[in-house]
């Protein structure tokens, strides 16, 4: 079973200023609780027990709020990414925490519903004997995301991070692209490929590039098409939509 996860929560949240001048974006409430708590509930619903949260500077509010994780029924640990060196570098900080196990990577600004999606993703990963399972959802503009090529059996045959329109064209599926939705299950072998990854745009190490190196080495990986609702709360527009959806969900539960 997959029991460990790494949550990426080191970003500065520049698109949510001035709110993020005061609190980390992961502490912004979606409905009645912070975004990070929704992330942890998703992980817990999938059987995760131990979570390493990668934080950056000025993220002490996350540590203060979550503590050891006992209140949430999890064991939570923290590690500092002292410089913004990219998602692959952030994940690499969990090498000794993960070891050789399969594990989940989830971005800390993700709002996903229903929570039990995580269980289905883990089951899909195991059923396909996958070395990497990427959760995907369709987007109309690929330039902010990592996008993939996938065949009819859901096996992935290529990916690219934050492409230009020209770079993205070979990855188009009808009128959209398949975005890597900030949630994935990886084998511990990924750390070997992170060490081989060269800096990409802005000199950062992208996790997408590390996964692509792993795929090119003959490791089978699959895409899980997510049919629920997902927002990254990195913009005011997506934050408002996520908050509206969560309040509607709460209202339905209280009826």
Question: Can you put this structure into words, describing what you see?
Answer:
It is a single chain. The protein has about 260 residues and is of the alpha/beta class. The protein has a single domain (about 5-255), classed as Spore Coat Polysaccharide Biosynthesis Protein SpsA, Chain A (Alpha-Beta Complex), CATH 3.90.550.10. It is about 35% helix and about 25% strand. It contains 10 helices and 13 strands. It has helices spanning about 20, 35-45, 60-65, 85-90, 95-100, 115-125, 165-170, 190-195, 205-215, 235-255; strands spanning about 5-10, 30, 35, 50-55, 75-80, 105, 110-115, 130-140, 145-150, 155-160, 175-185, 220-225, 230. The strands form 3 sheets. Strands 1, 4, 5, 6, 8, 9, 10, 11 and 12 form a 9-stranded mixed β-sheet that branches. A two-stranded antiparallel sheet has the order 2-3.
């Amino acid at each position: 079973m997959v029991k460990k996860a790494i949550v990426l929560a080191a970003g500065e949240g520049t698109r949510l200023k001035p709110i993020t001048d005061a609190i980390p974006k992961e502490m912004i409430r979606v409905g009645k609780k912070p975004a990070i708590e929704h992330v942890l509930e998703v992980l817990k619903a999938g059987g995760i027990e131990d979570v390493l949260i990668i934080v950056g500077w000025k993220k002490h509010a996350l540590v203060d709020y979550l503590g050891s994780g006992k209140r949430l029924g999890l064991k939570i640990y923290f590690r500092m990414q002292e410089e913004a060196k990219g998602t692959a570098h952030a994940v690499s900080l969990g090498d000794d925490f993960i070891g050789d196990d399969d594990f989940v990577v989830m971005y800390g600004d993700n709002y996903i519903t229903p929570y039990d999606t995580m269980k289905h993703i883990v089951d899909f990963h195991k059923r396909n004997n996958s070395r990497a399972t990427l959760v995907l959802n369709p987007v109309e503009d690929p330039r902010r995301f990592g996008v993939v090529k996938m065949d009819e059996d859901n096996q992935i045959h290529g990916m690219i991070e934050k492409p230009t329109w020209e770079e993205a064209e070979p990855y188009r599926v009808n009128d959209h692209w398949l975005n890597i939705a900030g949630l994935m299950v990886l084998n511990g072998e990924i750390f070997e490929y992170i060490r081989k990854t060269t800096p990409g745009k802005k000199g950062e190490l992208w996790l997408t590039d590390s996964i692509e190196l792993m795929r090119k080495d003959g490791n089978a990986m699959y895409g899980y098409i997510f049919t629920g609702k997902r927002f990254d709360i990195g913009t005011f527009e997506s934050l408002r939509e996520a908050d509206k959806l969560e309040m509607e969900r709460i209202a339905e539960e209280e009826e």
